[in-house]
Task: structure prediction
Amino acid sequence: MNAAPHPNYEYYFGGTLPADSPTYVTRLADQDLYEGLKAGDFCYVLNSRQMGKSSLRVRTMQRLQKEGIACADIDLSAIGTWDITLEQWYAGVIDSLVSTLNLYEKFDLDSWWNRHHLLSPVNLLRKFIEEVLLKSIAGNIVIFIDEIDSVLSLNFSTDDFFALIRSCYNQRADKPAYKRLTFTLLGVATPSDLIKDKKRTPFNIGRAIELTGFQLHEVQPLVEGLVGKVSNSEAVLKEVLKWTGGQPFLTQKLCKLILADDKGSSVEKIVRSRIITNWESQDEPEHLRTIRDRILRNEQGAGRLLGLYQQILQQGKVAANDTSERMELRLSGLVVEQHGKLRVYNRIYEFVFNQTWVDKALADLRPYAEAVTAWLASNSKDESRLLRGQALQDAQKWAEDKNLNNEDYQFLNASQAFESRVYQEALKLHTFRFEKGQASSVSELINLCDQYPEEARYHLFKEHIERWLVGQGRTDLANISRNIVKEYYQLERQGLEIFVRELCNSINSKPYPEIFVQPDRLDFGEIPIGYKEIVELQINKSGRGFAWGSVTVHPHLPGVILPQIFDSSTKTLSIQLDTLLVALGNYEGYIKLQLEGIQKPLEILIKYTVTDIKIHIEPSQINLGKVQYWKRYTAASLKVICEPSAGRIRGTVSNKLPQLKVTPSSFEATSLKFSLTLDTTFLDEGRYEDKILLRTNKGEYQIPVQFQTTIRWENAIALAIVFAIITGILLWILRAFIGFSVGFINLWFVYYPFQDTKPDYFFLNSCPQSSLDLAKILKIFSTWSFWLGLVIIIIIYFNKIINNLYHFIKALLKIINFFILEELLDVAILAIIVIVIIISATPLIDGINFFLRLTTTMIRYLILLIQNFGTVLLVLTDLTAYSFTWFGIKDPSFCWLLLGSLIGAIRGIMSAIRTKISYSLITVSITTLLVVLAIPLLNFYLISKFPRSGC
Result:
């Protein structure tokens, strides 16, 4: 037996492997993708589901991030596919980039999107990449876009999105910053699926990463999990690969089933009992059902896929090429390409998706399943089983947009040939039969085509009419019919009309109708900016047939919106005029209807003059007055009126103060009312000013807004109590510690007794010298003075010091990084030169010594200055606290407690009633300072007049 297995070993299947999973199998694709991204290549990993694409992405991101490369992950399936708009989808893409790259502190998506709302979503993404992403991150960036096949389910095109990715690649030639940006696409799709518009450049850039199944030499990590469970883990794993073909999901699942088996069953027995038998109910997590659903999901192509897979089952393999059905079958995961051939991926798939399953699936698809089965059973001889008439038409219509297998096409072609023989017999009678009539001449055929256009279209494009014309000897018309069928096979209704016109020309009959439009001119006169109107022109015709063509305006007239095509059968033609974004001036031109097959266009005169509008804003400024604290309510309204009333404005509204909301934020109307909602919940008391900015198609307008919040006295009192308690306790602790350090807790720092002579010293001269060590007291007092002064200075300048230190360190790091990475050699040379100069220049050394002595002296005087500052602070505080001794209180610490409570209460009340007006705050501060200074001066005077014991 082998050694014991890894204690945390667990096989994972049905999801992305954890980053530290010991069962991760490193394949050739791991190195290919890593090297490609390091080289700056755009890469894509396009393969079937559950092949380990997401796990490959996670591991590759880890390797790149360890090397300092910024990596972003966009899961397109997480953004959503159902009931999502184009704008929401692109916003989700940008939000994913912001989230995974931690740009929230530097970038606010909501405000940025609103500022650039006039840009299309794809241009917003382009602007974000160029102006935010590439500027916020200095190094290389790799963006992984996973689940790209989810875009196929969106109700809008994402061609622009993938075209933008290709554009980022092309931008490298002109903008070097784009060389730092690389994309990786992962999903179940082909490059041709990414840009479907055939008129655009296909998605043909990048490096394809081939993701193959597990090979025997790669699966050593999986062997460890079987150690101690089976006698020969390597041999067992080799047997596993024979069944799974190295398919990652099945390989991990089968290993876990072996690990959970307590009966010592063989690999084959476990596969048959736990995977193949009743596979639809045992397929958890879903894998085999995913393959089944992908093949059968598209009814139009399922028959062709089943036919191709049936061919692979019967022949063992078929040639691999880039046809759509072969690519789709590979993406299902059911087959794999090896040495230029397609074969079934593994033995498990062969047992599950066998010939019986294919036959049942085909039978469920065909509406004519019973008929084709009976026809094939007769070796394709029983013509009674062939389809005819309406049944054939229905079957052909069903098969129009589907890719069927060869047997289906043989059956439908045989049915078509059988029906053609019936028509050939009809030709012998020189008549062409419709369901409700027959034609023996060209003129009769024209009438039948006009009366029954749908049936005529069917006969024309099934070449029935062509064969009848040949039988009538009208090969000229038969050739015209053949050419029209080739040219108009996607526009059958128009093709029929062109054919009938040719029939009319052949008998000198008027081929097309005359079209009249009423009215035939549009004069809107003077209209204001923002004027909008839809005019319905009535379409009348005389003669046979119908007309269609393009609608254009010459010259270009801004504000005129036309339908792209014209069809006389619609009876009306809608013309829309919208001058919202049209400049002032006179405009005149023609709406031209260029009808197919008719050389002379139909012209409709259109003219209009765009005049200016005036915008009235009421009121011009808003004063909300005093508003109650801690309230949320609609404060006022703002009216915007456009004159004349036929005009219209469009724009956005914004303001700076977040507590003041103006709704709606965007508008398009003749007149509207904005609501102002004010929330004072988190506003301090004071006076506020703001500006409402209206950005419109007529310009920008500013409306000043003023209001003042009231004081909430219960908050002021509560804040005063809190500050009083905290400040009082802090001063009490400080005074007690200083007194304890001196050794005489009840000693006042400064006391001036009334004496005839001037005191010999400034400190403690009234206390008996025998009881105090004056030198020790002065030393302790000086130490406390220094540290107290230093702490107060740091507190006063704390924010400034920290801010300056932060910017200094940041600048220093930039300088270090610059020199290390780009100028290392120059710095080394410069350092050598400086050392040589220092060693050889004795005067310079003397200058440095002088500078050091001067610095030491300055530091000594700075310490003395801080100490004096602390001394003054202690003396003033003690003098102020001494006021409480006049009320019979002797304990200095308790006096400091009372003084601290008083100062804290004043500070709390000031915080509660502070205002936004600067001069009021200055006045209150100066007044408080004068009062605080007056108290110790008064004490000094009283002590000198009325001496008391200071000990």
